[in-house]
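pls design
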């Protein structure tokens, strides 16, 4: 399923960076192997730079001596005094690095001296000049551009500059400057140093680029590793969140799988054992996936599976999912001394190309999973693209993650004085102008990781309100499952400074583990929280269990309260609850109070607090009366 190349496959820029670096290294080695050619070119560059000063100065001198003559060659050949003056003018250009400086002129294919500044080996006017590198003179005559070259044949010379003397667009003579061997040695040393500096700089640059590339690659790879579960080599959901745009979902079949009733495993055997079970199942499923497929732990016991279409057709994909379902159904999982048998529900999308985006494709698979879970579970459903199926659960996800979750607040008052004691925070979701109530939300989230996310959102929402308003006092509703959730307990512990203004109401469920719930209650009471049992007297309530829970409040379910004025059984039950609580120092809250008659009966039982439409409906925070301030 997962292979070591998936990181590079999803980050192809690193391929390009690596190829670019290899090309750079090959280019440098090519230059190094052909250094002699580049050295010659570099020498010529340095030579041209070294003669720049004399090039400029000689131009001025040549202009000056050319102005003295109508016919430069003829006048200097026939006039000894003019020739001497011109040689003196040229000698100004001579430096310690110049061996000799002279002017020669061409007649047919031969060259003859015209002016010479050398006092020791002077060339007389009209004397034949035999150059060692005659082709350079021909090149200068043709191009009318100066030429510099190293003297390979004359041992006491370093290099030579040939400069054309042009009249009427014709090269009539050449200024020749011979540099000493010492000047070439200096140039050669400079050249050698330059070559070393260039190659050392290139080497340092390549090492730096290599280190930078390795650093970037390693940093990105380490970040990529964070995406993976080290025990299973599968991806966490953060990988999906950070790579939505990089995944071409049309190349995959998409399936969303959910372990049926997995919360019962956590409740019975604890979170640690539950994690071991999930890890075991992930390994089993991952072992049935191919190298090009992807496994993403989508949330708790939900898994998102991507099957590469290049390896499967529609029918084989269906067989693959059925094999996974059967494998989980037949799997024996051992915890402590027990053997667990679990099942899995799967929703899938075959025609991923019809989806508008990856998120849309996942929503469609989720819709199929939703139908599967509400039609018996332990089966596979496929999204039907021919029908307009409502994406309700996914819509709930979006609303929960967005800013659409709010709480309305209903007051709980003293039955004796009518004074406000606190408000109960009641969940609502605002969908445009519509208000969605909990009874329309929670059944769709039952046994889903979204339930825990919803709980966290409710807690966070109310913590903000309590921080903003130091006189605000509320109660929030948590299920028994929430109360044994480490994340929920951690948030409550971190905000223990608000415990005197936030009462915890616990809603009993059929799967409640009273021993674990009591352990959590004891933790919360250490942080200063007060605990209330909510809706007592409804479906799962058991008076005997109250003896095992350290509670401060008991809220009697409204279905009983609203009957006490005309139902003897309801009357007797509430009276019994009230007496029990009085004897055990438990405060009682009565729900659904809608008449003064009900208030009077409850007061006769010694019940202290009540809530209901008789006092007020639930309202948004901004609409509450601030009389409590």
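designed seq:
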């Amino acid at each position: 399923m997962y292979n070591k190349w998936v990181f590079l496959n999803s980050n192809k820029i690193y391929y390009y960076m690596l190829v670019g670096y290899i090309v750079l290294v090959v280019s440098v080695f090519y230059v190094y192997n052909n250094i002699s050619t580049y050295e010659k070119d570099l020498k010529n560059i340095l030579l041209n730079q070294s003669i720049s000063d004399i090039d400029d100065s000689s131009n001025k001198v040549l202009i000056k001596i050319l102005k003295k003559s109508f016919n430069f060659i003829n006048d200097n050949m026939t006039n000894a005094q003019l020739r001497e003056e011109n040689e003196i003018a040229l000698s100004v250009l001579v430096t310690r690095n110049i061996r000799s400086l002279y002017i020669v002129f061409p007649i047919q294919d031969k060259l003859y001296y015209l002016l010479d500044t050398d006092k020791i080996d002077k060339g007389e006017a009209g004397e034949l000049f035999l150059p060692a590198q005659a082709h350079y003179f021909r090149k200068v005559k043709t191009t009318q551009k100066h030429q510099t070259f190293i003297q390979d044949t004359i041992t006491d010379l370093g290099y030579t500059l040939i400069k054309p003397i042009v009249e009427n667009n014709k090269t009539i003579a050449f200024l020749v400057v011979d540099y000493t061997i010492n000047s070439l040695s200096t140039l050669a040393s400079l050249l050698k140093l330059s070559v070393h500096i260039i190659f050392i700089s290139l080497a340092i640059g390549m090492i730096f680029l290599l280190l930078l590339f390795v650093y970037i690659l390693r940093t990105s790879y380490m970040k990529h590793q964070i995406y993976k579960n080290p025990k299973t080599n599968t991806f966490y959901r953060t990988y999906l969140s950070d790579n939505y745009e990089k995944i071409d979902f049309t190349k995959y079949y998409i399936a969303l799988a959910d372990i049926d009733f997995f919360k019962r495993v956590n409740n019975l055997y604890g979170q640690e054992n539950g994690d071991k079970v999930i890890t075991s199942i992930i390994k089993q499923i991952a072992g049935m996936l191919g190298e090009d497929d992807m496994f993403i732990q989508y949330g708790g016991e939900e898994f998102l599976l991507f099957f590469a279409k290049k390896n499967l057709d529609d029918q084989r994909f269906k067989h693959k999912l059925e094999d996974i379902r059967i494998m989980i159904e037949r799997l024996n999982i051992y915890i402590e001394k027990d053997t667990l048998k679990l099942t899995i529900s799967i929703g899938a999308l075959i025609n991923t190309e019809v989806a508008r985006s990856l998120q849309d494709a996942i929503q469609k698979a989720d819709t199929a999973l939703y139908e599967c879970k509400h039609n018996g579970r332990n089966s596979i459903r496929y999204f039907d693209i021919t029908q307009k199926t409502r994406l309700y659960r996914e819509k709930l996800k979006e609303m929960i993650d967005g800013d659409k979750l709010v709480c309305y607040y209903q007051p709980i008052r003293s039955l004796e004085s009518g004074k406000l004691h606190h408000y109960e925070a009641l969940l609502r979701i605002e969908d445009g102008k519509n208000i969605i109530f909990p009874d329309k939300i929670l059944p769709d989230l039952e046994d889903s990781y979204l339930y825990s996310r919803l709980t966290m959102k409710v807690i966070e929402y109310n913590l903000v309100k309590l921080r903003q308003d130091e006189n605000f006092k509320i109660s929030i509703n948590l299920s028994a499952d929430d109360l044994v959730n480490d994340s929920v307990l951690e948030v409550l512990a971190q905000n223990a400074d608000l415990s005197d203004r936030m009462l915890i109401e616990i809603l009993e469920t059929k799967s409640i583990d009273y021993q674990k719930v009591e352990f959590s209650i004891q933790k919360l009471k250490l942080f200063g929280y007060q605990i209330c049992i909510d809706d007592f007297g409804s479906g799962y309530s058991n008076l005997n269990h109250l003896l095992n829970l350290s509670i401060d409040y008991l809220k009697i379910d409204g279905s009983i309260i609203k009957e006490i004025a005309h139902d003897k059984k309801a009357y007797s039950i509430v009276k019994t609850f009230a007496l029990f609580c009085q004897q055990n120092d438990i405060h009682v809250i009565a729900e659904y109070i809608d008449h003064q008659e009900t208030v009077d009966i409850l007061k006769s039982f010694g019940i202290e607090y009540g809530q209901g439409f008789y006092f007020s409906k639930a309202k948004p925070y901004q609409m509450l009366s601030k009389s409590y301030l």
